[in-house]
Amino acid sequence: MPRALLLVPWICDFAAYDFWSCPVGLLSLGALLRLGGWEVEFVDLTDRHHPALPKVLQERLFHTGKYYAEEIPKPEPIAWVPRRYKRYGLPMEIAEENLWKLPRPDVILVTSRMTYWYPGVRDAILLCRRLWPRIPVVLGGTYATLCPDHARVTTGADVVWRGEGEEGLPSLIEEVTGQQLVLPTERRPSLACLDTLPFPAWHLEQGRGDRDKPRLPLPVHLLRHRATFATMACKVAHASCG
């Protein structure tokens, strides 16, 4: 059975805090892959509750909190900033050990967020290259969409995908792996009808160190009990601004 690895990269910045950060788009692709008969592995390099972290991080109100972080050298353009620059997430050796334990994937799908967090994306892809040098890496997400040329030059990804990934996922998978992602006709996603999009594969995220905390969408009244839920407000079509 073909296998895909979904990867959330590190954050590299002067400051970062987890206000319900959740890779909804990546988990949506995970749901499609599962629907098409693929095995899916999910690794979040910013997991705040990973059992191998050097210290236990305090959980704040409504499951927010600080990331584990290690100071790293500043990129040259911002070397003048009088603040400590850090990589937020799992220490490199723990991340490498976790990935090495996984079965060899047929494709690696990496998401991205803030454009200026690209050093974390680059480092995550370099780590994957070191472990699986011949496995295709596809980069998507905000940074890939807004700065595709920079991402192609900087990250080392085989494919930089702009915009939404659900509709084009079957053709993309076949292009980079030579294998098919066959979806039932009635379940093929269309951005013209958001009801056709799959429910994100929340169970993949719940397999992390914080598996005991509720992550499924919950009724709003449960917030009084400090449960949390994630929502995607909208999917916006590309448009030109005059």
Question: Which blocks of ≥5 consecutive residues have pLDDT under 50?
Answer: 209-228, 236-242
Q: Summarize the main sheet.
A: 5 strands, parallel
How far from one another are the termini?
48 Å
Give the DSSP E fraction (strand runs of 2 or more residues).
5-15%
Number of helices: 7
Task: Please state the structural category.
Answer: alpha/beta
Rg value: 18 Å
Protein architecture, described:
It is a single chain. By secondary structure, the protein is an alpha/beta fold. The protein has a single domain (3-225), classed as Cobalamin-binding domain (Rossmann fold, 3-Layer(aba) Sandwich). The protein is 25% helix and 14% strand. It contains 7 helices and 10 strands. The protein is globular, with a radius of gyration of 18 Å. The chain starts with a strand and ends in a 36-residue tail after the last helix. Residues 209-228 and 236-242 have low confidence and may be disordered.
Topology:
Layout lengths: L2 E6 L2 E3 L3 E2 L5 H12 L3 E6 L20 E2 L2 E3 L14 E3 L3 H9 L6 E4 L7 H14 L5 E3 L2 H5 L1 H7 L4 E2 L8 H9 L24 H5 L36
Parallel strand pairs: 1-4, 1-8, 8-9, 9-10
Antiparallel strand pairs: 2-7, 3-5, 6-7
Name its key features.
globular, alpha/beta, disordered C terminus, Rossmann fold, five-stranded parallel β-sheet, 7 helices, 14% strand
